[in-house]
Every structure is written in structure tokens, then in C-alpha cells.
Amino acid sequence: MNIARTIAAAISLVGAACGSHSEDTFDAAPRDESWEVLVDATWELEAGTEGYLCDYVTLDRDVRISALRPVSAEGTHHVVVGIADSYAAEDGVVPCDATELGDSMVFAAGIGTEGLELPAGTAFELTKGTRLVMNLHVFNPGSEVLAGTSGVEILEAAPDGDEHLLESIFAGPIDFSIPAGGELTHGGDCTFKRERTVIGLAPHMHALGTHMRVHVVRADGTEQLVHDAPYTLDDQQYSLFEDPLTVAAGERVRVTCSWENPTDDAIRFGPDATDEMCFAALLRYPATDADPLCIQ
Rounded to whole angstroms, how far apart are CA atoms 94 and 135? Predict the structure, then answer.
């Protein structure tokens, strides 16, 4: 059954894309321990440029996911897969920007992200007819044309009515400016509207990031530290909590990042590889089609 599509595209500084379509398929009865392409794109990028592509796919059967891993050719800055049922774009590849993440988020991977095996009793569930969007950011700082294929592969799980169904969100601040030749530590809160259980997270910053801390700010004002680690651009790994973390409605997840800026210019939040970000990708349940961004 065809629920995946490979797109060939050329990206320029203005984000134009063109190309032809070919198809990858899921087996009707997937093999055990067999990785399958969920969505991917084959691209070509001129030297000294970067750009965004969005690939839209409509699922033609139910899919329950037990593991995910990125396909990250050289030049892949990130891939984010979201659910985009309200989006008007037709299936296929279109130029886009960093904000086109879908109505809710399934999975995000940055530079160096490895495969993510979900804990027993949890899964992502995608139903027949769901529209997916893959937001792909590619960059080429070199002097020659760069080409590759980027996307996400999955392992499927057998149906199990007792599983907790997951969603992902990005939590973190966007209101910061790192001074020229200086350092900055800055944080922001994501307030949970309903009680959720968080099972793990992955950090995402750009090249100037050096450290991330994540706290849960409890209802009584106390702060529970759940992540405290140095950051490097090429090692954006998921870490799963030994004990799942319950966050009550009204409680906050506070994401705090540190940066060092050796340049002669102030660096602010932004979508380009030369800008900066401060997001923790949180894995949580139950899934409720939450907005992909939870910012202060």
C-alpha cells in the first residue's frame, strides 16, 4: 500500500522547487523488524544556500509506530513530521518555511539524532486518511552543489488497545538576543493546559548553543530538574526518562538554554542556520492534537 512518496527537488535561495515524483511503498503486511519509509525527499541545493521544503502525504491505511529514525543526508539541518489535516496543500512537495509544522507534531530530528525506540506500552498512532507534512530544512555552507535524501523511517507495532498514544511538542523561548562577542543564558515556559505524562525529550539549538536545562515548575512553585546537559549541534539525541513524568494542568515546563556568540553581530531567534533556537522536543501522552509549539 502506498503511504510514502519520494520527491526530487532543487532548492535555491528563494525557495523554488521543481522535480518529478517516484513512489516508495509500505508492505501490506510489514515484515517483523523491517524499517519502512514514512516520508522522504530527494533534494539538490546550490552552494552557500539553505531552504525549506514541505512534503505532504495522505495515509491510505492505519499505522501504529514503535520506533522512528531519521534519514539525514549531509546538509540536513532538521526534519519534522506533523499531522496537517487542516492544511490545504495537495500531496507532494512545495516550498515552505519553518512555521509549516502541521496542526500537531509526531517526530522531530536534528543533526546527529539517532533512532528512537519507544518504551513498551507507548506508540504513535496514525489513522487512514491522515495527512502528514514533513518540514525539511537543508543547508549547504560549502562551495559545491550538495544533494541527498532526507526523511523518516519507522518500525510498525502490532495493534494494542492498552498502549498510551503519544504526541510531540516543541517547548522553549523565542524572545532572546545573544550579544555580539558575548554569552547568554535564557529560558521560557510552556504551560500545560491538561495533565500529561512526559516520557522523554530531545534538545534543539543551533551552532552557538552550549547547554540546556529543563525544569518542571510545580503548582507550589518548586522546580524539578529533569534535564541538565551540555549541548553540541551534531549530537541532538533523545533521552527517555527512567520514570515517566506527570505534569499537571497549569504546571509549566521551563526550558533554559546557554549560548556563546563569537561573532561581531547580535544573534536572535530565527529559522536560518545562522540564527538560534532553544527548544526541547517533548514526548508526551495522551495525544490530543496539540499545537506543535508551546512557547511563553
Answer: 10
- pTM given for the model: 0.88
Among the listed residues 126, 139, 117, the one whose alpha carbon sits nearest the alpha carbon of residue 67: 117
Beta bridge partners of 259: 184, 209
pLDDT digits (tens, 9 = 90+) for 162-210: 789 999 999 999 999 999 999 999 999 999 999 999 999 999 999 999 9
Phi, then psi, of 47 in degrees rounded to 5: -60, 140
All domains in the chain, ordered by first residue: 4-165 (2.60.120.310), 167-294 (2.60.120.230)
